[in-house]
């Protein structure tokens, strides 16, 4: 018992065991899809503290090793903890120096085990993770939720993205999207999320991973349209109503 | 002055007396019987000549589909239609009631009904019942002041919008609208967008399904396209049909006719 408590860090021998029960600083949805050359992933840069948008430059997509990208929504501190774990994993893998490296499938499996085992101890990492990558020409895109549900698909989304972005992706995604079409489709999804998700911020990054490597774009903003005539004068024809 | 309590006439509106009893029962584990909800996707949009309303046709009772092809677009007036989501009885009753009130008003004034009239009547009724009448409505129509589209929430608040969705499939349908809607759509473009939004609800939301109903309202004219699209046909139907041997029809033991003398 004592050694487990000591591993939690900064916990005295007689303190009660600490668990993540509520998320504090959270990121909203991540959307990702497979395209012709690899994977495209998009996430905005907001970190909300309850109903305040507290941080506006949180990078929620990170490259892992040579072959993968990890995007996370949910508790940011748990995401940072995961990144530390994955760093260690990649380091040990590199130390073998055997020409082989962990690919996206292996990382997805590792993350599933970590998430599931944490939830079994009633101490979950409060995240929904999206893992995408390309290794030896094989594209891979998968998702792990905070309770350990994992699956692989051609397009995934977390959080609100499930309700707002996946219907669009199910309708308009097809095999062999070009890079421009993939980005346009992702931007369409992110725009709908920007309009309809209260914790979204208009500052997003799109990350791309192909056999050649990873690029994460600079943060940029989407154009929005508010000029509908009904918005200009909603009570036309009924003065005094709303 | 008698000793008995003075009889105060009832003041109308909802009587909240039994709510405390219901709460107490719920705490003891006795739950209300489940309602027939229309767990739904309903949409409306304004196009260049008027309003188009759309709805799916599935009615659910908890996890079971109780009606595969119900009608969720209700008639309010010759130029006004209303889609309803939430408890089916509530949406039916409230739209029927306001439809009758509008008819009486038309007789009284001799004029075509206005959408804001229907809106105010519905809003007043729903607010009066403090959200207990669980009807979420998309009201659309064209009157002398132009095309109008409103959403009405169970507690009585309303919105005036160029495009609107309600029900459990509203997010899936709204994703379609937000990405594809623009001003000045033609009738065919509008119908296609409404169909896309309802199909998005049908295929991505578990509470919506079956077919697509569409209603197009323009100045002086309306088109009620019941089952405009049937994207869920029955896949396996026995081509030979089902034959029942004659003997199974009426296997009665004894037949006797008697006159009943009253």
Automatic annotation (TrEMBL), chain A:
Gene Ontology CC terms, in alphabetical order: cytoplasm; nucleus; proteasome core complex, beta-subunit complex
Q: What Pfam families does the annotation carry?
A: Proteasome
The protein's matches in SUPFAM superfamilies, at most eight in alphabetical order, are given as: N-terminal nucleophile aminohydrolases (Ntn hydrolases) (SSF56235)
Renumbered to this chain, the signal peptide range is: none
Q: Which domain of life is it from?
A: Eukaryota
Protein's UniProt keywords contain Nucleus: yes
Q: Which InterPro entries match?
A: Ntn_hydrolases_N (IPR029055), Proteasome_alpha (IPR050115), Proteasome_beta4 (IPR016295), Proteasome_bsu_CS (IPR016050), Proteasome_sua/b (IPR001353), Proteasome_suB-type (IPR023333)
> What are the subcellular locations of this protein?
Cytoplasm; Nucleus
Q: Which UniProt keywords apply?
A: Cytoplasm, Nucleus, Proteasome
Q: What does this protein do?
A: Non-catalytic component of the proteasome.
Subunit structure as annotated in this protein's UniProt entry: Component of the 20S core complex of the 26S proteasome. The 26S proteasome is composed of a core protease (CP), known as the 20S proteasome, capped at one or both ends by the 19S regulatory particle (RP/PA700). The 20S proteasome core is composed of 28 subunits that are arranged in four stacked rings, resulting in a barrel-shaped structure. The two end rings are each formed by seven alpha subunits, and the two central rings are each formed by seven beta subunits. The catalytic chamber with the active sites is on the inside of the barrel.
Family designation: Belongs to the peptidase T1B family.
- Name of the protein in its database record: Proteasome subunit beta
Q: What is the lineage of its organism?
A: Eukaryota, Viridiplantae, Streptophyta, Embryophyta, Tracheophyta
Automatic annotation (TrEMBL), chain B:
Q: Which UniProt keywords apply?
A: Proteasome
Top-rank lineage group of the source organism? Eukaryota
What name appears for this protein in its UniProt entry? Answer: Proteasome subunit beta type-7-B
